[in-house]
Amino acid sequence: MAAISASPMLNIDVDKLTYEIFSVLENKFLFGYDYDHPDPSPKLSHCVSQDFTKSTKNSRGGKVRILSIDGRGATDGILAAASLARLEASLRRKSANPDARIADYFDVVAGSGAGGILAALLFTRGRDGAPVFTADQALKFLVQNQRKIFRSSPSGIFRRFSRSEKAEKLFRKTFGESTLKDTLKSVLIPCYDLSTNAPFLFSRADAVEMDGYDFKMRDVCIATLAAHPTEVCSVDRRTRIMAINGEIAMNNPTAAAMTHVLHNKLEFPLCNGVEDLLVVSLGNAQSEIGIGNPTSSPAGFARITGDGASDMVDQAVSMAFGQWRTTNYVRIQLPLDKTFQANGSLAQKQGGFDKSTNSNRTVDFLAVAENMLAQKNVESVLFQGRKMAESTNLEKLEMFAGEVMKEQERRRTCVVPTVVLKQTSPSPRTSSATTLSTLSSC
């Protein structure tokens, strides 16, 4: 025994073996998973069997995949949708699955403002069990319905949501009676609650876990886009908020999404740090005001404030990732001012929104998005201004799609679930019982 104690390497191996054994027992107790070993009584030796090593290796190392979409108006939302359409196409190509959806490859989505609408469209369960829209359909939805959802500024660019009968009718038709409980993955959509003077985060987890926090998706969309105070009530009428748009609360919801995952051990039991996250964050278009002095109007000041807050979140998140920032975190910041110039300036083509056909408008925005993706990202560096990234936006998206696919493949053979969500039965609507289930195979 003295000889054994005197060997530090042997102690390390024994400690590792003990940790792995208890990890297996813990996960068997929590999740009911069984481990198929040829020897039911493995010897307590520093030489671990190959089968046992393979089993424990497959049970660890998973990454939670997060999609974050910044807020703002129709222009930013449409360009973000075009980026997601390109990402979804890449995932379909890499997986050889023509029906693959964005929701199949992400565990968490956070969207603010127009980003919240995209999150709702891409992650709400439809009648067939699949998401309501594909990314391409979501793009067309925003292009075709921008006048119903957004009101135009004096410059002709659609910016803010204006609650109207047309918008409410549109959201009712799109989402029906679906609520936060009917979302396929963990959904986070913010607004600002004027009754408490604090941000309010619509959360699928809260809707499932607590009474008074389940909201209809059509009301969630109205709240995150509202330009004026708008009362929104929970399904059971227990919670009432006086909502105004999510841009005020958190234009860049990336940090909120990461915090939600890292502190939610019930749904993400194996996520212990940023090394266990894969995050793609779609930013707003830079310098949309473009013409004249951006500080000459309240909207200009608001834009600068929002951009500054988003940049600070991006910088903080990037620093938090540390050595994993180049592999686990991707930020797509749209260089919209250059893109507009390269495409004849959409801001000056005001008549194009009304006089051209919907298909032509879609082509216009796709052209802008393609040009944007071909450019290199302009990144903010803490206290050092901005610098040009080494990779283009498209290269970043392609790289991230590859990482997401690797995680998807890993989960097919994993032993312990990376993500565990409480699911509610989509029908009948009157049932509120929840059951513990897992995503995909783990």
From TrEMBL:
It comes from the Eukaryota. Residues 423-442 are annotated as: Disordered. Keywords: Hydrolase, Lipid degradation, Lipid metabolism. The keyword Translocase does not apply. Its EC number is 3.1.1.-. One of its GO terms (molecular function) is hydrolase activity. InterPro entries: Acyl_Trfase/lysoPLipase, PNPLA_dom. The keyword Lipid metabolism applies. Residues 67-258 form the PNPLA domain. One of its GO terms (biological process) is lipid catabolic process. It holds the Pfam family Patatin. It is an enzyme of class 3 (hydrolase). Residues 424-442 have a biased composition (Low complexity). Lipolytic acyl hydrolase (LAH). Belongs to the patatin family. The nitrogen atoms of the two glycine residues in the GGXR motif define the oxyanion hole, and stabilize the oxyanion that forms during the nucleophilic attack by the catalytic serine during substrate cleavage. PANTHER family: OS03G0784100 PROTEIN, PATATIN-LIKE PROTEIN 6. This is Patatin. It comes from Morella rubra (Chinese bayberry).
